[in-house]
Amino acid sequence: MSMASIINERNRKSRLKHTIKSLIASTMKVRKNINPYKKVELLAVTPVQRTNQILVRGQARGTAEQRLYELLIMFSGASFSETKDKDHPLKISLGSGAYIYMAKLSGSNTKVQVRCTCKDYYFMWQWWNKQESALFGGKFPTYKRKTDNYPERNPDHVPGVCKHVIGLSEKLAQQGVLTR
Ligand SMILES: [Zn+2]
After folding, report:
1. Is the pLDDT of residue 13 over 60?
2. Residue 156 sits in which domain range?
3. Which of 51, 73, 91, 151 is the most exposed place for a label (fewest CB within 10 A)?
């Protein structure tokens, strides 16, 4: 790793400030009832060893329109080991029959960036998550308001997550990958 890429890596990490727990707590400031979405599938847990990250991919089937939403949670600051030990109990596939072991991710300490293709994430959260480095992936296209007659969706300008992301994190907790 070159000095420049080490510095870039450090800058990227220090900008991240949200965890799954802090994003859910922020969501609860503006939403009273949050039920983790049940119809969420965990598709892949992919280790990115070079940057000590874990990319989690999931999908959720919408109830009303039966649309399929795609979700991503990037965990930064993961710890990997070639061998299994008490700090690295989880066996993760690298593909082609290769494996690596990793430490459990922490809901209250591991920094995250999230993304979902649902309307709630688009209208309510993506913009404010971007301001707080909690949006995973590129900027969403700008939404042009057709009228100013309706109130702003997120008047408190808080970052947060949709029910699908909460459902996916719940699934990771059930499988022992994420501690609450
Ligand atoms: Zn969503």
Report:
1. no
2. 3-179
3. 151
